[in-house]
Design goal:
The complex is a heterotrimer. Chain A is α+β, with helices and mostly antiparallel strands. Chain A contains 15 helices and 19 strands. Classes of the chains: A alpha+beta, B mainly alpha, C mainly alpha.
Chain lengths: 509, 317, 254
């Protein structure tokens, strides 16, 4: 009785406030997509990945789930014999959601916008960029083999000229993808509807993106049947969701890693033996099983097997070996001291690890590592904080160690992450103070090389160096978990996290 | 009447002075917060992809390298022109960010306070009319228990029961009226419990007080005597608590917003603080101050209306 | 009925005072024995990292209760002092205290806590300071209102006219008369501080893992609630019982 009158009250109040949604008819079923990332702004450099994943906007080049690069806005690409001049023809008949045809000028605008915002595309040595008929011609000053991979960067999604507001900033997402935006509600939801691009329409006609930052809330929504497809679930929620009847979890290991970057410039970490001892002291299998609940996530090297080109099966897998770790520390001159902590020259083997609290599994992982290192006499203090604590400490020079999630496929070639993370004295998210002349020579050579055999050899050597030198200590790979409701057929998962591929999904009945 | 207007004017002047203090404090605090604002803003915008370029751009956008006095002068000038500026994260006008969130907070807060009053006051009054009775005991136990359960725990339990186990209501998110039921109930229960206790106490005291006893001697039935003479006295603490609670609801349910993914003001404030989105923090603080001042004013006016002996005071005690 | 508040507070008191002695290491992990149900080995089972829930609870009780008491001591100590002085001096001092209380109250408590936490660089000190500052205006207003009534009484005014030293007068004659009511309010404030600290722990602000705290223990264990209900129920029950005990205690006293 009470609940009914109350529901009526709420309903009346909300109807008055215009918050109630009209009920959808059966053929207008809405696919509810739930993910943690909020639509904090419409700037493609901030949130272009949401527009790209939802199939609203497309990049010039894209990547298939199997890692193969394909044309999206461009139909493909060719490289002239000078190895500097790249040609990207616009896909024939391609139109924006506002009906205007796509021209090479739109691709150029996207690249220039993304370069102005810095980051990935700013690393490309562009000499000139111009339109020839319906083709974009891009010239680099030096050979840049991974250019097509770099053009999958979401900051460079191609948007219609009408997407710009009066101030020249992007004010709407008017793209070329299979779905067009019908409504954006603050930073919480984006509604899309299938866009007729000629050819067959996708089976899912309508979808809604829900931004739900709280992991536990995402899990509840899946369990309650409010989500059809939910990305990035808490490891602990997976068995619970699978035990219920409303959804099943699909998971794969993706090229993202939870790593412990170190300040190699510090006296304690400058000694490779200490880095090795920490590496040997971490129980990756235990953490993967107990905290992540996904044993295959235990990292045996930096990059996981799904990156077939970069995963190096010849490397000796990382594993726990407490006895060997103790020997290394003793060889490095560390002796048992007060409180069970190792000391050398009166100083304890102690450091602070900055742990990002925005990924809920990281604090318990750090707690597990703390206890494991404690057994070796290493005193690791934990400090958790918002995402900015690591770059903050890197900038003010107080950085000692961190525990962060790092993707190696911002673009489908990990070289785009290896370049900023391992060839500079100071980084934002990775090591600091690690100066390795060999890797600083190998990386530019790799970028300039078009010889497949040579590139394979370079990759092998780069991974060997990182594996042995441990400027960052890989702890686990990422398990990409997707909860799929029983209303939907099993979905394709893109390990590169570029697209949700909603246009390839289908209702179960 | 003239006295009333004078008192009102004094209260308004106080409100303005207080808002000024809130704004100044807030600005000073934001400047004093440790850490590089540009880094925090860049991470808020780009997450794990924030790099050197993004940090440089954030510093430019925020004008963080300019002198503090110049930053404040700009902001104060804007406010005087009734322009709250643009959010550094979304780049949209702060007003456009605040308004939809204010609506969410007011709807959730208002309805939960209403529901709390509808449940708490009758239960408390029922208990208070027969102190020591069965109803009194039951209400006392329930009220004590529910005021001791933290809101986040209660919310989690309600989600488990009604959304996951029974499947009657959605777990989180927005869109339909049903989405509001669980968060509002969570908040309302947390409010109804202390309200029932206060109401019970007020009723016991008022009903035992002289005017009601006198009315009963006049031959009125206990209920009628109470209604005629007791309600006014019992109403004051209930109205006071309701008003205070409303202010608390407005500012304080970041937890509920997080749990149910409601885009309210508390959530905006927390994220703006973390990302050092100074224009948004200041505008939100200004809004909170304003809401608090208005609620206080309404509260005093209501108390004065209920009890003519309380004139509209300049200093609410 | 009279013993109920104490009965409710007893588990927290016992655990907090004696617990850390018999359940020594709240950080020790057994990754092979995660989420074990309560048994002879683990009286309250283990959590997701195979840590003893009982040991963590004992340490958490010290942390939560200690921090809450500290917050209240700071807020009510400072607030009472300011309130009494305001009532005694009247005039602009009183107006200043009241306006300061208004301004503090108008700033959202969460904002205050976050700002103070930020200023002090995070951690427990910041948490205590933030919660204490958020409680300060209530203490200031209440003690001023109560003190105003006492200060107006003939014997205080007589002492004032006789030229007795003011601090002695305020501390010896005024304060004791306020204490019963202030103590009752302060008990409620402890309950509130426990809830605030738990809520902040739930939001991940303030205390850093692996230091156990009630709210954080609950937040960390919520994902495992279906599988291992004891990891949530134990801290939740202790939290609710303690707050309930404090509320009833304050009520019985008033």
């Amino acid at each position: 009785m009470f609940r009914r009158s109350f529901t009526f009250l709420v309903g009346a109040a909300l109807a008055g406030a215009g918050l109630t949604a009209a009920p959808a008819s059966a053929d207008e079923r809405v696919l509810n997509v739930v993910a943690p990332w909020q639509v904090t702004s419409l700037d493609p450099a901030d949130t272009g990945y949401i527009a790209a994943r939802m199939g609203i906007a497309e990049t010039i080049i894209g990547v298939e789930p199997d890692g193969k690069l394909v044309g999206l806005v461009a139909s493909g690409w060719t490289l002239d014999d000078d190895r500097l001049t790249w040609r990207f023809p616009v896909r024939a008949g391609l139109r924006f959601h506002d009906g205007t045809p796509v021209t090479p000028a739109d691709m150029i605008a996207a690249i220039e916008r993304a370069r102005a915002s810095g980051e990935t595309l700013a690393a490309v040595p562009i000499a000139s960029i111009s339109a020839e008929g319906s083709t974009m011609v891009l010239k680099t000053t030096t050979p840049f083999a991974p250019l097509p991979a770099f053009l999958t960067d979401y900051a460079a999604i191609v948007l219609a000229p009408s997407a710009r507001g009066a101030d020249g900033k992007i004010a709407a997402w008017i793209g070329t993808g299979p779905y067009r935006v019908t409504a954006i509600d603050g930073d919480r939801s984006v509604d899309v509807a299938a866009f007729d691009r000629g050819g067959a329409m996708p089976a899912v006609r309508r979808a809604r993106y829900h931004a739900v930052p709280q992991g536990e809330t995402r899990a509840s929504m899946v369990e309650a049947g409010d989500a059809d497809v939910a990305y990035t679930l808490l490891p602990a929620a997976v068995p619970r969701i699978n035990a219920g009847s409303r959804a099943k979890v699909q998971s794969i290991t993706i090229p993202r890693a939870r790593v412990m970057p170190l300040n190699v410039g510090l006296p304690i970490f400058a000694d490779l033996r200490v880095r090795q001892a920490i590496n040997l002291g971490i129980d990756r299998a235990g953490i993967a099983a107990a905290v992540l609940r996904h044993p295959p996530s235990a990292a045996t090297q930096l990059l996981p097997p799904i990156l077939a080109d970069w995963h190096n099966p010849a490397l000796p897998p990382y594993a726990r070996d407490v006895a060997r770790a103790r020997t290394l520390l003793a060889e490095a001159g560390w002796k048992p001291g007060e409180g069970g902590v190792l000391h050398k020259d009166g100083a304890p083997l102690r450091f602070t690890i900055l742990v990002l609290a925005n990924r809920p599994e990281l604090p318990p992982m750090a707690a597990a590592m703390q206890a494991q290192l404690r057994e070796l006499g290493i005193d690791m203090q934990i400090r958790t904080g918002p995402g900015s604590i690591v770059p903050q400490a890197q900038r003010d020079g107080t950085f000692q160690a961190g525990l962060v999630g790092r993707t190696y496929v911002n673009v489908p070639d990990p070289i785009a992450t290896i370049l900023p993370d391992f060839t500079r004295d100071k980084t934002v998210w990775a090591q600091s103070g690690w100066i390795n002349a060999e890797i600083r020579a190998l990386v530019p050579e790799y970028i300039a090389s078009f010889d497949d055999a040579r590139r394979a050899a370079l990759r092998k050597r780069i991974t060997e160096i990182l594996h042995a030198e441990l400027p960052v200590i890989p702890v686990s790979w990422f398990e990409h978990t997707v909860a799929v409701s029983t209303r939907v057929k099993p979905v394709p998962i893109d390990p590169y996290e570029q697209r949700y591929l909603i246009d390839r999904m289908a209702w179960a009945n | 009447m003239g006295q009333l207007i004078g008192a009102l004017a004094a209260r308004l002047a106080q409100l303005v002075a207080m808002l000024l203090a809130v704004v100044l404090l807030c600005f000073a605090a934001m400047q004093a917060l440790p850490g590089d604002k540009a880094v925090q803003l860049a991470v808020a915008r780009h997450g794990e992809r924030a790099g050197e370029d993004g940090i440089a751009r954030a510093s430019r956008d925020g004008g963080f390298d300019r002198p503090v006095a110049a930053q404040f002068a700009d902001w104060a000038g804007q406010v005087l022109r009734l322009d709250l500026g643009h959010s550094l994260v979304s780049r949209r006008p702060v007003v456009d960010e605040l308004w939809p969130r204010l609506r969410v907070t007011l709807i959730a807060g208002g309805l939960s306070v209403l529901l709390g009053v509808l449940v708490g006051v009758p239960l408390g009054a029922w208990a208070g009319l027969r102190p020591g009775g069965v109803v009194d005991g039951a209400v006392a136990v329930a009220a004590a228990l529910f005021s001791a359960v933290p809101a986040f725990l209660l919310g989690l339990l309600l989600v488990m029961l009604f959304a996951i186990r029974l499947g009657w209501l959605p777990a989180a998110g927005g869109g339909t009226a049903l989405h509001w039921v669980l968060p509002i109930c969570t908040l309302a229960v947390g409010f109804a419990a202390p309200l029932a206790r206060v109401t019970r106490q007020a009723v016991v005291e008022a009903w035992g007080a002289f005017p009601v006893t006198f009315g009963r001697l006049k031959g009125l039935s206990p209920v009628r005597a109470g209604l005629r003479h007791g309600v006014r006295n019992a109403a004051i603490p209930v109205v006071m608590l309701t008003g205070l609670r409303f202010a608390a609801v407005i500012e304080g349910f970041a937890v509920i917003e997080t749990l149910f993914n409601l885009p309210g003001l508390g959530d905006l404030l927390v994220r703006a603080l973390v990302s050092r989105d100074i224009p948004t923090v200041q505008a939100a603080a200004l809004l909170f101050g304003l809401l608090y001042g208005v609620v206080g004013l309404v509260l005093d006016a209501a108390c004065a209306a209920i009890d003519p002996r309380r004139r509209l005071r300049v200093h609410p005690a | 009925m009279r013993g109920l508040p104490l009965l409710l507070l007893a588990p927290a008191l016992l655990l907090g005072l004696l617990g850390p002695g018999f359940a020594p290491d709240p950080l020790r992990q057994e990754l092979m024995a995660t989420l074990s149900p309560p048994s002879g080995d683990w009286l309250l089972g283990t959590d997701e990292l195979g840590r003893s829930v009982l040991a963590r609870l004992a340490h958490a009780t010290r942390v939560s209760a200690g921090l809450a008491l500290l917050c209240v001591a700071i807020a009510w100590g400072g607030g009472t002092l300011l309130g009494i002085v305001a009532a005694w001096r009247g005039g602009w001092s009183e107006a200043l205290v009241l306006r300061a209380a208004d301004t503090l109250m108008a700033l959202p408590g969460l904002l205050l806590t976050l700002i103070v936490a930020g200023l002090l660089g995070g951690g427990m000190v910041a948490l205590v300071a933030g919660v204490a500052v958020a409680q300060l205006p209530v203490a200031m207003r209440m003690s001023r209102a109560l003190a105003a009534g006492v200060v107006a009484r003939p014997f205080v005014q007589a002492g004032r006219l006789a030229g007795l030293p003011v601090p002695g007068l305020l501390l010896r004659d005024v304060l004791p008369l306020l204490l019963p009511q202030l103590a009752t309010q302060a008990a409620l404030s402890v309950a509130q501080a426990v809830l605030s600290i738990a809520a902040l722990g739930f939001l991940g602000i303030g205390i850093h893992p692996p230091t156990p705290e009630w709210g954080m223990m609950i937040a960390e264990s919520v994902p495992y609630m279906a599988e291992a209900p004891w990891t949530v129920l134990a801290p939740a029950a202790l939290l609710v019982a303690s707050v309930l005990g404090l509320v009833l205690l304050a009520e019985a006293a008033s």
